[in-house]
Design a protein that fits this description.
With 214 residues, this protein is an alpha+beta fold. The chain folds into 2 domains: 4-65, Orthogonal Bundle (434 Repressor (Amino-terminal Domain)), CATH 1.10.260.40; 78-209, Ribbon (Umud Fragment, subunit A), CATH 2.10.109. The chain has 6 helices and 10 strands. The chain has helices at 4-14, 20-27, 31-39, 46-56, 60-65, 203-209, and strands at 78-85, 93-95, 104-106, 115-120, 134-138, 152-157, 162-169, 176-179, 186-189, 191-201. Strands 1, 2, 3, 4, 5, 6, 7, 8, 9 and 10 form a 10-stranded mixed β-sheet that branches. A hairpin with a 7-residue loop joins strand 1 (78-85) and strand 2. Helix 2 (20-27) packs across helix 3. The longest helix has 11 residues, at 4-14. The radius of gyration is 18 Å and the shape is globular.
Length: 214
């Protein structure tokens, strides 16, 4: 499978739905929207890929970017490395890119099975996490809370980007400024969710604990 629409079709068929319309009806999706996503007439975002992946029982990283195994890992005690961060000064998370896509890392102390990890690439996050480090957070998709203000957190903005930024108050309620470790501050962003960073593993130790997925 070499394209996102093809992988979506494969996931739908593997789940037992003979037609796109049957899948759309089962999960309450708009028939035309889903059909356009599956036939390639309309691209779908990573956020939508997560919804489709959850419905069809596949990994969103595989569905969106052909990264790692199709199915979620069942290996106890490990969580997925879902992407890279720090490869550019904007703090954008690059989902499931590079050779480590699909790799696993141990659940950090105090973490749960909802934990996920990001691998730091480059030196734009120096002072927080060096090149090769792992950043963990709980993938719970909940709104930002007051105790996150002033801290570096993982956020998703309404443009489908996932970022690692310092969270600050915006100009009015419901808006936030996102301060980069290196690079300009993004002002008055609307957030879909925010998550505390729960652990940062230094590069040397990260190299020792990452487990590749065949």
């Amino acid at each position: 499978m070499d394209s996102r629409p093809q992988r979506l079709r494969e996931a739908r068929i593997a789940k037992g739905f003979e037609t796109a319309a049957a899948a759309a009806d089962a999960f309450g999706w708009n028939r035309n929207t889903y059909a356009s996503n599956e036939n390639g007439n309309a691209a779908f975002s990573y956020r939508r890929a997560k919804e489709y992946a959850a419905a069809f029982g596949v990994r969103p990283e595989w569905l969106y970017d052909s990264a790692g195994p199709m199915r979620p890992t069942a290996e106890p005690g490990y969580v997925p490395i879902i992407g890279r961060v720090g490869a550019n000064p904007d703090g954008v998370v690059l989902f499931a890119t590079g050779q480590d896509a699909g790799d696993l890392a141990p659940i950090p102390p105090g973490g749960t099975d909802k934990a996920v990890a990001l691998r730091v690439v480059g030196h734009s996050m120096r002072g927080i996490a060096d090149d090769g480090a792992l950043i963990y957070f709980e993938d719970q998709r909940t709104p930002p809370t007051p105790d996150m203000l002033g801290h570096v957190v993982v956020v998703e903005v309404d443009t489908d980007e996932v970022l690692v930024k310092r969270l600050l108050r915006g100009s009015r309620g419901g808006l936030f400024d996102l301060e980069s470790v290196a690079g300009p501050t993004r002002h008055d962003a609307r957030l879909r969710w925010a998550a505390h960073i729960t652990a940062i593993i230094p590069p040397y130790q990260a190299r020792r604990i990452i487990r590749g997925v065949a």
